[in-house]
């Protein structure tokens, strides 16, 4: 089975969500189903059907998180200090070759990616282009709007 890379922070976030789902959301929906059952005819009971639908969502999410965690290869990026090449977990600052913009990204697992927070998936075109590069290297990225060139300004690990 293929292992999926994940940062320590990403794994902790999934574990916290799993704990919340199991300790809060699941018991709450079970209570809601019991209360709705007490209201009588289940065939016309909207509260019952809504609670059952919510239960299905919660159980599905619990299974999804457990599967992700069981296949995760958790990488502690703090141990990468001293590495000057871009690898999984790197925080990279890039400057557009025309000098107009600078961006900062951390390369993370697919489930952790959040472009607004500056976290990009290891499978994204820009991350794939960056892997193996060092400070000062020029990177050409195949973007939807055409090829863009960036200079790697800095590489560090948190």
Q: Keywords for this structure?
A:
3 helices, single chain, alpha/beta, 158 residues, 5-stranded mixed beta sheet, Helix Hairpins, two-stranded parallel ribbon, elongated
Number of domains as seen in the coordinates: 2
Second rung of CATH, namely the architecture of the largest domain: Roll
Strand content: 25-35%
CATH topology of the largest domain: Chitinase A, domain 3
SSE arrangement:
Blueprint: E1 4-7, H1 8-37, H2 46-71, E2 72-75, E3 91-96, E4 102-108, E5 119-121, H3 125-130, E6 138-143, E7 146-156
Parallel strand pairs: 1-2, 4-5
Antiparallel strand pairs: 3-4, 3-7, 6-7
Structure description:
- With 158 residues, the protein is of the alpha/beta class.
- The chain has helices at residues 8-37, 46-71, 125-130; strands spanning 4-7, 72-75, 91-96, 102-108, 119-121, 138-143, 146-156.
- The chain folds into two domains: 4-75, Transcription elongation factor, GreA/GreB, N-terminal domain (Helix Hairpins); 77-156, Roll (Chitinase A, domain 3).
- The chain contains three helices and seven strands.
- The strands form two sheets. The chain has a five-stranded mixed β-sheet with strand order 5-4-3-7-6.
- A hairpin with a 5-residue loop joins strand 3 (91-96) and strand 4 (102-108).
- Helix 1 (8-37) runs antiparallel to helix 2.
- The chain is elongated.
